[in-house]
Design goal:
By secondary structure, the protein is α+β, with helices and mostly antiparallel strands. The protein has one domain (about 5-100): Winged helix-like DNA-binding domain superfamily/Winged helix DNA-binding domain (Arc Repressor Mutant, subunit A), CATH 1.10.10. It has 6 helices and 3 strands. It has helices at about 5-10, 15-20, 30-35, 40-50, 75-90, 95-100; strands at about 25-30, 55-60, 65-70. A 3-stranded antiparallel β-sheet has the order 1-3-2. Strand 2 (about 55-60) and strand 3 form a beta hairpin. The chain starts with a helix and ends in a 7-residue tail after the last helix. The mean pLDDT is about 90.
Length: about 110
């Protein structure tokens, strides 16, 4: 992961918000759809880009796929994301609040 690659991955609001939500732990696509108020195909497409870029990883649990930050991320990436989190929360509103309440009952 290079700084340029990280910034390219975070340059889209859907991808940035997804990553910020995943800082709190794994989520399934339905959780992210609800938080982001986006369709399943759009959320899945952006998660695929994040996975291909090495920022997130997925795990299939039954019929659901859960996404989390990649375990092998360099420390500087985690530090950068953590530093962005308060500003993102201030601007994200409802999406940030949904995650604080936990996962949805869809999975």
């Amino acid at each position: 992961m290079t700084p340029l690659n990280l910034m390219k991955l975070l340059a889209d609001d859907t991808r940035l918000s997804s990553v910020m939500l995943l800082l709190n732990g794994p989520l399934c696509v339905c959780d992210l759809m609800e938080a982001l108020q986006e369709s399943q195909p759009k959320v899945s497409r952006h998660l695929a880009l994040l996975r291909e870029g090495g920022l997130v990883e997925s795990e299939k649990r039954g019929q659901w796929v859960y996404y989390s930050l990649a375990r092998e991320l360099p420390a500087w990436v985690i530090k950068t994301l953590t530093q962005l989190l308060p500003e993102w929360r201030a601007q994200a509103g409802a999406a940030a609040e949904l995650r604080k309440g936990g996962q949805l009952n869809c999975c």
